[in-house]
Write a structure and sequence with these properties.
Layout (H helix, E strand, L loop, with lengths): L5 H7 L8 H4 L4 H15 L3 H6 L4 H21 L2
Helix pairs in contact: 1-3, 3-5
Length: about 80
């Protein structure tokens, strides 16, 4: 079985010991959303390529913001 990406694993508490803060906050909706947005940024957009080609990180994030929103909307509507 594949392990989730580190950002998703951290947000969902995968591997957290019972009774620890990570396990208690395992399904924090904001943390899950941040992990999903990070995944979309790196997998579904040209963000990494832009940064590697010299675009400032904040500028690259601004350029892909609408694309991330479209992917999020599509994923939220899919069954």
């Amino acid at each position: 079985m594949r392990r989730p990406a580190p950002a998703v694993a951290n947000a969902t508490g995968n591997g957290a010991r019972p009774g620890t803060r990570r396990s208690r906050d395992a399904l924090d909706p904001e943390a899950v959303t941040r992990a999903v947005v990070a995944s979309i940024r790196h997998v579904d957009t040209p963000y990494d390529e832009m940064v590697m080609n010299g675009v400032e990180r904040d500028e690259a994030r601004e350029r892909i913001r609408a694309e991330i929103d479209r992917v999020l909307d599509r994923r939220r509507r899919s069954p």
